[in-house]
Amino acid sequence: MQLRKLIVATAMGAGAVFGTAVQAQSDAPKQSVGEYASDAVITTKVKAAFVADKTLSALDIAVETNNGTVTLTGTVGTEAETEQAARVARDVEGVKQVQNDIKVDPAKAQAK
Where is the protein situated, by its record's location annotation (predicted)? Predict the structure, then answer.
């Protein structure tokens, strides 16, 4: 089960990297290649940290990084999960700031 979660998180991280790369090519460059690559690495590390944390679901939380600022979005079952996600993200090397936009849906807590 953990291996499956790790594979999914890796695929999602890779998808975020490649999807953002296509978008970055069409927009005016706002970051250097080094900054962009660093943000992609941070995003992948945060997703991997979510996979490793047994209280969080990496599939419920989206991660986006811009200049070291990590933005978390998605929906979780409890406020404690929201706070745990922010703590886990803050502990990742390279994260300068965390913007936590995760919403709480009590129905998700009941589904577990």
Answer: Periplasm
